[in-house]
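Q: Convert this sequence to structure tokens.
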Amino acid sequence: MKKLILILFCISFLISCQPDGRVFIEHQELSPEVEWLKKDTRTFKVPVEDISKNYNLSLSFRYVNGYQFQVLKVKMTETSPSGKVQEYNHDLKVISDKGEYIGEPGYDIWDSEHLVQPNKNYDEKGEYTYTLEHNMPVDPIILVMEIGVILDEVAPE
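A:
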């Protein structure tokens, strides 16, 4: 009985930590070697149930002190439930113009979120597939840990 109460408490704690309107969040590890190869794509399956709403689509990025590029270039391929494919190129600013890391620090690790498509409206209901790959001039890029996709409903005004 104590285990059940503890499990229920943990589940309710995790659910309560999500911001209002959060539809989807998933992070995927890039490599145990703390690097990202261009051929090493990450795929996310994002459910969209209400096409009458607008959404904010963000990418999250976890990196380590010493990451040397001011911007992480990411190629994102979106595939709709009916198979329509669109490609986007996003520049995630990781280091400010003052040379400071952007994001939330945790010892030597930084977590950053980047709004890449504000007020996005989906045409189809169902599961969208997002494939992410780095689009940097060097391969691999080092001192990187995770990439992720976040989808939030835009609050009505």
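The chain is about 10% helix and 55% strand.
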